[in-house]
Amino acid sequence: MTTPVFILPGLGGSGPAHWQSIWEASDSSLHRVVQRDWDHPDLKEWVATLQEHIAACEVAPILVAHSLACSLVAHWVNEHGKGVKAALLVSPSDVESPEHTPPEVRGFSPVPLVRFPFPSTVVASTNDPRVALPRAEYFATSWGSRLVVIPEAGHINAESQLGEWPEGKALLWELRHST
User: Fold this and answer.
1) CATH code reported for the domain at 5-178
2) Quick one: CA dihedral 118, 92, 165, 146, positive or negative?
3) Per-residue pLDDT tens digits for 21-71
4) Distance between CA atoms of 95 and 166, rounded to whole angstroms?
C-alpha cells in the first residue's frame, strides 16, 4: 500500500505557483489537507482537521508542512503524537514574533518544543522574513529534526520562484524511503 502524503499549507493556503501546489498537481499520491479558513487560522480547528485526515489513513502518512503548518504539526504532536510516518517541515514561521509574523498566527503560539516521535526534516533559508535562522535551528533541534539550510531562498514559497523545487522533492523522497 502506498504511503499517503499530506500537503499542509500555511496562512493563506498555497497558491498555484507555490511548490506545494505544483507537487500536488503532478503527483496523485499527494493530498492537500484543506482547512476551512486559510486567512483566519484557528489552532483547535486546524489540529482537529489534521487529526481527522491522519486517523482515516490505513497507512501512516508523511506530512509536508509549510510555514504556519510547521507549528500545526508541533501542536498535533503535542496533542496526539502517533500515526505519522515522517514530516518535511519547510520554513517554520516564528508565530511568537510580531517582528516576523502577522497577528493572525498568534493563536499558534507558543510553538511546542517537543521531540517528534517520527523522522523529520526542517528546511530553512538564510534570509527568511518569517523566521530568523537561529530560531529555525532551535525548532529543528527541539523537534529532533534534521536541519537543511538553503541560502537566500526567502520564505521558500511562490515568491522564491522555486517552481517544482526538485531539491525539496529529493528531501521528500528520502523521507519516503528511509523509514
Assistant:
1) 3.40.50.1820
2) negative
3) 999 999 888 999 999 999 999 999 999 999 999 999 999 999 999 999 999
4) 28
